Amino acid sequence: MSAPVLGKSHDRPASLDLPRSPRSHASGNFEKYAWLFMRFSGLALIVLVFGHMTIMLLLDGGVKRLNFAFVAGRWSSPFWQIWDLAMLWLAQLHGGNGVRTVIADYSRKDSTRFWLNTLLVLSMILIMGVGTYVIFTFDPNIS
Question: Span of the secretion signal (predicted)?
Fold first, then answer.
Protein backbone atom coordinates (compact mmCIF):
# COMPACT_ATOMS: atom_id res chain seq x y z
CA MET A 1 0.00 0.00 0.00
CA SER A 2 1.43 3.38 -0.96
CA ALA A 3 1.23 6.62 1.02
CA PRO A 4 -1.20 9.24 -0.29
CA VAL A 5 0.27 12.00 -2.39
CA LEU A 6 -0.48 15.32 -0.71
CA GLY A 7 -0.43 17.26 -3.95
CA LYS A 8 -3.66 15.70 -5.16
CA SER A 9 -6.86 17.00 -3.59
CA HIS A 10 -8.69 13.69 -3.83
CA ASP A 11 -6.01 12.01 -1.68
CA ARG A 12 -6.26 14.49 1.20
CA PRO A 13 -8.69 13.85 4.03
CA ALA A 14 -11.41 16.43 4.60
CA SER A 15 -10.12 19.11 6.93
CA LEU A 16 -11.83 21.34 9.44
CA ASP A 17 -11.17 25.05 9.73
CA LEU A 18 -8.61 25.96 12.33
CA PRO A 19 -10.26 27.18 15.56
CA ARG A 20 -8.88 30.70 15.15
CA SER A 21 -9.34 30.98 11.40
CA PRO A 22 -11.33 34.04 10.32
CA ARG A 23 -14.91 33.48 9.30
CA SER A 24 -14.77 36.14 6.63
CA HIS A 25 -12.36 38.64 5.17
CA ALA A 26 -14.57 41.55 6.23
CA SER A 27 -12.57 42.13 9.42
CA GLY A 28 -9.44 43.13 7.49
CA ASN A 29 -6.61 43.94 9.85
CA PHE A 30 -8.86 44.32 12.91
CA GLU A 31 -7.68 41.06 14.47
CA LYS A 32 -4.04 42.03 13.98
CA TYR A 33 -4.60 45.38 15.68
CA ALA A 34 -6.64 43.74 18.45
CA TRP A 35 -3.76 41.30 19.03
CA LEU A 36 -1.25 44.16 19.16
CA PHE A 37 -3.52 46.13 21.50
CA MET A 38 -3.61 43.19 23.91
CA ARG A 39 0.20 43.12 24.09
CA PHE A 40 0.72 46.86 24.51
CA SER A 41 -2.21 47.41 26.86
CA GLY A 42 -1.00 44.49 28.96
CA LEU A 43 2.41 46.12 29.32
CA ALA A 44 0.85 49.47 30.20
CA LEU A 45 -1.45 47.79 32.73
CA ILE A 46 1.51 46.13 34.43
CA VAL A 47 3.08 49.57 35.00
CA LEU A 48 -0.20 51.20 36.05
CA VAL A 49 -1.35 48.41 38.37
CA PHE A 50 2.01 47.80 40.05
CA GLY A 51 2.38 51.57 40.52
CA HIS A 52 -1.12 51.70 41.99
CA MET A 53 -0.50 48.75 44.32
CA THR A 54 2.86 50.13 45.47
CA ILE A 55 1.41 53.54 46.29
CA MET A 56 -1.77 52.21 47.91
CA LEU A 57 -0.39 49.28 49.88
CA LEU A 58 3.32 49.72 50.51
CA LEU A 59 4.26 53.40 50.85
CA ASP A 60 3.60 55.70 53.82
CA GLY A 61 1.94 53.26 56.19
CA GLY A 62 0.24 51.07 53.63
CA VAL A 63 -3.39 50.12 53.79
CA LYS A 64 -4.02 51.73 57.21
CA ARG A 65 -3.99 55.20 55.66
CA LEU A 66 -6.55 54.46 52.95
CA ASN A 67 -9.79 56.28 53.66
CA PHE A 68 -12.12 58.83 52.13
CA ALA A 69 -9.71 61.71 52.79
CA PHE A 70 -6.88 59.85 51.03
CA VAL A 71 -9.01 59.27 47.92
CA ALA A 72 -10.24 62.88 48.00
CA GLY A 73 -6.67 64.16 48.17
CA ARG A 74 -5.52 61.81 45.44
CA TRP A 75 -8.34 62.70 43.04
CA SER A 76 -7.83 66.42 43.59
CA SER A 77 -4.76 66.04 41.35
CA PRO A 78 -5.31 65.75 37.58
CA PHE A 79 -2.28 63.43 37.42
CA TRP A 80 -3.96 60.79 39.61
CA GLN A 81 -7.30 61.25 37.87
CA ILE A 82 -5.64 60.49 34.52
CA TRP A 83 -3.66 57.59 36.09
CA ASP A 84 -6.83 55.98 37.46
CA LEU A 85 -8.79 56.74 34.29
CA ALA A 86 -6.09 55.12 32.12
CA MET A 87 -6.09 52.09 34.40
CA LEU A 88 -9.90 51.81 34.23
CA TRP A 89 -10.14 52.24 30.45
CA LEU A 90 -7.20 49.98 29.61
CA ALA A 91 -8.42 47.26 31.97
CA GLN A 92 -11.93 47.41 30.49
CA LEU A 93 -10.77 47.42 26.87
CA HIS A 94 -8.11 44.76 27.48
CA GLY A 95 -10.55 42.48 29.30
CA GLY A 96 -13.33 43.17 26.82
CA ASN A 97 -11.06 42.29 23.92
CA GLY A 98 -10.19 39.02 25.63
CA VAL A 99 -13.85 38.18 26.24
CA ARG A 100 -14.63 39.11 22.60
CA THR A 101 -12.03 36.56 21.51
CA VAL A 102 -13.56 33.89 23.75
CA ILE A 103 -17.02 34.67 22.34
CA ALA A 104 -15.67 34.37 18.79
CA ASP A 105 -13.96 31.06 19.60
CA TYR A 106 -16.85 29.34 21.35
CA SER A 107 -20.12 30.71 19.97
CA ARG A 108 -21.33 28.63 17.06
CA LYS A 109 -24.25 30.69 15.78
CA ASP A 110 -23.86 34.17 14.33
CA SER A 111 -26.91 35.38 16.27
CA THR A 112 -25.46 34.15 19.57
CA ARG A 113 -22.16 35.83 18.79
CA PHE A 114 -23.96 39.07 17.90
CA TRP A 115 -25.99 39.22 21.13
CA LEU A 116 -23.07 38.25 23.36
CA ASN A 117 -20.88 40.90 21.74
CA THR A 118 -23.69 43.45 22.06
CA LEU A 119 -24.04 42.70 25.79
CA LEU A 120 -20.28 42.89 26.17
CA VAL A 121 -20.02 46.29 24.47
CA LEU A 122 -22.96 47.71 26.43
CA SER A 123 -21.51 46.55 29.75
CA MET A 124 -18.09 47.96 28.86
CA ILE A 125 -19.59 51.33 27.90
CA LEU A 126 -21.63 51.41 31.11
CA ILE A 127 -18.66 50.61 33.38
CA MET A 128 -16.28 53.00 31.60
CA GLY A 129 -18.93 55.74 31.57
CA VAL A 130 -19.81 55.42 35.25
CA GLY A 131 -16.14 55.10 36.25
CA THR A 132 -15.15 58.16 34.22
CA TYR A 133 -18.05 60.12 35.67
CA VAL A 134 -17.06 59.21 39.24
CA ILE A 135 -13.39 60.05 38.73
CA PHE A 136 -14.07 63.49 37.24
CA THR A 137 -17.07 64.54 39.34
CA PHE A 138 -15.88 63.22 42.70
CA ASP A 139 -16.75 65.79 45.38
CA PRO A 140 -14.74 65.50 48.60
CA ASN A 141 -17.16 67.86 50.38
CA ILE A 142 -19.96 65.54 51.40
CA SER A 143 -22.74 67.51 53.06
Answer: none
pLDDT tens by residue, 25-82:
556 799 999 999 999 999 999 999 999 999 888 887 788 888 888 888 889 999 999 9
42, part of any domain? yes
Contacts of 85 by beta carbon, 8 Å cutoff, 6+ apart: 131, 132, 135, 136
> Following DSSP, what letter does each residue of 60-78 receive, concatenated?
TTGGGG-SHHHHHHHTTSH
Quote the domain boundaries for residue 103: 31-137
CATH number at residue 60: 1.20.1300.10
* For residues 112-129, average pLDDT: 98
Whole-angstrom distance, CA of residue 62 vs CA of residue 109:
49
Check residue 70 and give its pLDDT: 87
Decide if 87 is inside a domain. Answer: yes
Residue 126 lies in a domain: yes
